[in-house]
Amino acid sequence: xxxxxxxxxxxxxxxxxxxxxxxxxxxxxxxxxxxxxxxxxxxxxxxxxxxxxxxxxxxxxxxxxxxxxxxxxxxxxxxxxxxxxxxxxxxxxxxxxxxxxxxxxxxxxxxxxxxxxxxxxxxxxxxxxxxxxxxxxxxxxxxxxxxxxxxxxxxxxxxxxxxxxxxxxxxxxxxxxxxxxxxxxxxxxxxxxxxxxxxxxxxxxxxxxxxxxxxxxxxxxxxxxxxxxxxxxxxxxxxxxxxxxxxxxxxxxxxxxxxxxxxx
Length: 264
Fold this sequence. Notes:
Radius of gyration: 28 Å
Number of helices: 17
Strand content: under 5%
Order of helices and strands: HHHHHHEHHHEHHHHHHHH
Largest sheet: 2 strands, antiparallel
Shape: flat
Structural class: mainly alpha
C-alpha cells in the first residue's frame, strides 16, 4: 500500500469494525441467529400487512385505516432498507471475501457493483483544546448565571475553548510518510514485523530529539516523566515555540500544530 489514501481507508474500515463490536449489536446482527431474526421480522411484517388487506375494514374509520396502511408500508420499507444496508455493509463484504466459492465471489462482485456510494466515515476534523489559550482567556461567560441555574456550566466550559480543524490530505500524507520512514529505519535492527510495530509504538519522541542533538538535554521529559506529564510538557513547549516562530511556516510545520494542541 503506497498511497496514504488506501492506508487511511483501511484504518477507517478497521475502526468501524471495532466500533460496531463495542457499541452496537453487530456481533449478533451479522451472526446466523441475527439473519434468522431479520428474515422472521420481515416475514411477520408482510404477513401482518397481507392480513390487514384481507379483513373487512368497513367498521373502522377511514383515517385509522389510512394510518395503519402508512405504518405497515413504512415498516416493510424499513425492513427492506435494513436488508439492503446489511448486504452492503463491510461485515458482509468481509465475510464474502473470505470464501473462494465462485457463486459467493460473483455475489460479492454484484454487491460491490450496486452498493450505494459510501459517505465519509468520519468528519475529517480534529478537536483541539489549548491549555495556554484557556488560561489566558479564562473570563466569565456572559451567560454564566443562566448556565449555573441550568446546571450546565461545567459542560459548557468544557466546550467553550474547543476548536475544530480539518485534517487535510497533506497532513495525512505527512503522517503516512513519517510512519513509513520510521518503520523502514526500525526494520534494520528488529527481526519480526510485530517487533517493528512494538518498537515504533514505544517511541515518544526520542528519535527527533536524538536527530536534533537534544536527547541529552531534554530526554528527561520523555524517558523519566510519566506519559500524561510528558504530553502536557510538550504541549506547552511546542505551542510556545510554534507562536514564537517569526519566519514563514512551511506546510509540514503548520500541520504539526495539530498534535500539541490535541490535549483534550
